[in-house]
Amino acid sequence: MLSRKPSAGGRDILYVALAEAIGEGGCPVCRCVEKAERNFLWTLLYEHANDPHVRGKIIEGNGFCGYHFRRLIEIAGGDPLIGGLAPALIVENLLLKYVESAEADARLETSCYACSELAKIEESYVSSFASRLATTDLLYLYESNPKSLLCYRHYLEVRSRAPREAARRLKEVQLEKMKRLLGELRSYIAKHDYRFTGTITESEASSWVKAVEAMKGSGWASYRFSCAESAKRAARKPSRPR
Ligand SMILES: [Zn+2]
Ligand SMILES: [Zn+2]
Predict the structure, then answer these.
(1) Ligand number, closest to the Cα atom of 227
(2) How far does residue 3's CA lie from ligand 1's centre (Å)?
């Protein structure tokens, strides 16, 4: 049963972003972070490629992670306003550093500037979602839109920061949504039986894709989550002597 619709409460910029993201379907935090990531990388290329402070930060961290280098290539290649010069200026500085490192037999570790900035942005959306669950109608909006489903990691993070009653209600809503998706997925599989003569709904056909996002998130958030998991596994695994 839907929660009673509360007042919208304080409608600040984070509330508006989260409410819009709920309307778009999938994980609202992943959606907000994807938009923030695109804006951040686009602005970096368009406005800050010559900014000594930003260039210094990028070079200090030895560039970007592989995921963000690929995103930069996509954004620069897909926008004639940017083109190749801005990324070339950044990459030239970095490649020089790599050449010098190879000459000195040193090893460069990367601390991605984009990842560290996005982690702060992600945190602000997670904590805003959590605190606004109790003071605005975000939980009502989330519950009312069957296409909106927090990914597993963002659900855990939002829930852990939410006030107790809002956290309890969020868990109920989340489980209902996850079980509904599981039902759709099972229905999609069952309808492949040769004896079935009805139609597969659009929502059922995309259920397995939605399930992947529900488990792992999307975009940078999913990349980061998977990498953090494998890094932990690698750290736990004792190294075998050769
Ligand atoms: Zn997410
Ligand atoms: Zn990165």
Answers:
(1) 2
(2) 23
